[in-house]
Amino acid sequence: MLEWLNTHIAYWHWLVLGLLLVTAEIFVSGFILFWFGLAALFMGALLVMVDMPITLQLLLWAGLSIALVFLWLKFIRPNWKDRTTSGMAMEALTGQVGSVIDSNIGKSRGRLRFPAPILGEDEWQFMSTSEVGIGERVKVINISGNTLVVSPH
Questions:
Q1: CA distances from 58 to 10, 40, 65, 69, 125 (A)
Q2: How many helices and strands in the chain, by DSSP H and E?
Q3: How far is 23 from 40, CA to CA, in rounded Å?
Q4: Per-residue pLDDT tens digits for 87-117
């Protein structure tokens, strides 16, 4: 069997396998097949330059595939987190810093303005456990209904 594979497997077999695996990634979630396909494409390119037995080809392909999957899972994927906050008002507002335009001194609520609109509004009503004056900067720590809960920044 190995002798038959040694004589019949050519570089283009690896290229076809690589393209099939990369294309199959479209239909499978997880972004794992892509790395196996990329390793197969690399093996096809390597075989154009260097002739090697099928066992070495398979070992190199498996090792390269595992290394690419490990690099993907360990280093690349954690940095590819979805940073959009659409549809998540709490995540979009928490941590934002705005300036007070209507103080809450003597009242339970005031108004603040963000430098850029957040969720379509640049002015929001706020409440705070401490009194903050006009022009002070506050940071959103929570949301209560349609009112922001802030603390001095």
A1: 13, 9, 10, 16, 64
A2: 5, 5
A3: 13
A4: 677 777 888 999 999 999 988 899 999 988 8
Closest of 40, 15, 37 to residue 24, by C-alpha: 37
**Pair 9, 17: CB distance under 8 Å:** no
Helix 33-49 vs helix 11-24: crossing angle, to nearest 10: 160
Alpha-carbon 34 to chain mean position:
17
Total-model pTM: 0.54
The H-assigned helical ranges of the chain are 2-8, 11-24, 33-49, 54-71, 89-93
Is 152 within 8 Å of 100 (Cβ atoms)? no
Enter the DSSP assignment of 75: I
* CA–CA gap between residue 2 and residue 148 (Å, rounded): 69
DSSP per residue, 96-128: -EEEEEE--TTSS-EEEEEEEEETTEEEEEEE-
Task: Please give the structure tokens belonging to residue 36.
Answer: 């196996």
